[in-house]
Design a protein that fits this description.
104 residues; mainly beta; 13% helix
Length: 104
């Protein structure tokens, strides 16, 4: 078994999202989120490349901007840019998104 060395707490979820990369929009899912990133899945993940600017549109929450940091068949990791909340505190941003996803 491998040890998870990531520092941020993750909120697990399974929420539909639209993922936009390279001018194309794909239907997918958000599977977990932390203060700095999220894991998504889409059948079209082969069209997403490491370093691509990504928009993740979660219905009822809004658009979250980030950069693709890794991808494997069907899944990708997104490093989040500053989200547009009232607070610049990472903990508040993560908590707001985590709370939304728990209730979705």
């Amino acid at each position: 078994m491998t040890e998870d060395l990531r520092r941020e707490e993750r909120e697990r979820c399974h929420v539909r999202a639209k993922v936009k990369a390279r001018g194309q929009t794909y239907h997918g899912w958000v599977h977990d989120v932390s203060a700095k990133g999220m894991r998504i899945s889409t059948d079209e993940v082969a069209e997403i490349w490491t370093g691509d600017e990504i928009e993740v549109d979660i219905e009822g929450f809004g658009v979250i901007l980030g950069t693709a940091r890794w991808r494997v068949p069907g899944r990708a990791g997104i490093l989040l840019h500053d989200m547009l909340y009232d607070s610049g505190d990472e903990g508040s941003r993560s908590a707001a998104l985590g709370k939304f996803l728990q209730n979705a």
